[in-house]
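User: Hey, quick favor. My workstation is busy. Could you predict this chain's structure for me?
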Amino acid sequence: MSLAIIYSRSADGVMAPQVFVEAHLSNGLPSLSIVGLPQAAVKESKDRVRGALLNSGFEFPPRRITINLAPADIPKEGGRFDLPIAIGILVASGQIADDNLEKYEFIAELALSGELRPVNGILPAAMQVARQGRTLVVAEQNGQEASLVEECSVLAAVSLAELTAHLNGQQKLLPVQLIPLETDKRASLDLAEVRGQQQAKRALEIAAAGAHSLLMSGPPGSGKTMLASRLSGILPEMTRQEALETAAIYSIANNDLNLGRWMLRPFRSPHHTASAIALVGGGSKPMPGEISLAHNGVLFLDELPEFGRHVLEVLREPMESGVISISRASRQAEYPARFQFLAAMNPCPCGYLGESSGRCRCTSEQVERYRARLSGPLLDRVDLQVEVSAVPVDVLLDSQLETEGSADVRQRVSAARHRQLQRSGRFNAQLSPLQLDDNSRISRSARSQLANAMTQLGLSARSFHRMLRVARTIADLAASEVVLDRHIAEAIRYRSLDRYLKNIT
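Assistant: No problem, here it is.
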């Protein structure tokens, strides 16, 4: 036969659209042309394929070869089409049988020696292939990653010769079996290691229980970063579906997927010199940034006012919608970004405002300019704001002081989250105003207390709803179906920066 059609997949964000690799051999001067919107790396595959075929003991047909990558409107990048192009040429020239090829999808780069090399974005492709009921053929280095999708049958080959022997029925490849990996537990730091800071620990628990955003303000050395690093440890374990969603993003991001930690919630802490592109993602081929890499996990911004104002403003949309859209001249990609926002800041430029030692020498104008780096709309989107004071020396020296560990807190957090999912199908921080009204049974006295807080603090409608969401979470932690006065009162305490809103908007 002079025509062969091979199945493969492109990479488009977290999607992996189907690509039909059509190989046609015709009479004419020997040549090889690739059509169907190929990028430079795809066009270069003709040389890699030629070398791989010859060095694997096959004949490169001295005919006019046309490779069509359909549909033509999908951009094709990288070396992921090397293997399906080579298989298509071999089938079209009759060097291997075309029996049952419709059962397979091929994704791999080829070395000139015929060796199969790994590519990025295998996990999203495996998820799509599983839905089609086909078998995914990849390089050996991609085998374990693809097998994370239990519903997907995966074949991993070392070389083109080994794969063709399988297709010809000479030496069968066995499906890849996922090797159980010991999960890296180093990311799960224990909350019991933090001395004192009961209010901050309570705020951390509330944030975890309702998936709320949290801003901690306090002097250097008060434990803000230490507290932040332990948020992941009190969050419930990810479901397999959540883990696959997150792992798919890391699979795209320069093959940065750690198979030993793929079931752990991500904790991303970019430096304050990071650009807006680093947070959002981008490039000529839109790649995920820190916002998406923190999906289903924690995004921690230390020294929040030190970030550029433009950088911080890009957080506003994904904090509300849970997705980030990246548009470029010829490409557009959408990545999930349902992260838990956590931030820390000093109360003033030197960090010691309000301390009894009197070390702070900042003027009121300097403090005002420092806090003005945070816009009112951004602070509106932060559910909890808590002040973290310095830990007394006697607390630090008290080795007998018993503090609650992460495991105990995680149990309460899991129970509160279960109540929310049973009641509304989502966490409190994700409720729309209408859903919040439907799911928040508030006592009459609590409503009056909330109205007074609105007036005295000058809260916006967005801040009002966020305070109500926090109160709903506090009630869930207390296993209360009704939001009571004490729940509202505690929620009000976590709006410590609202008195500055008028000055920083």
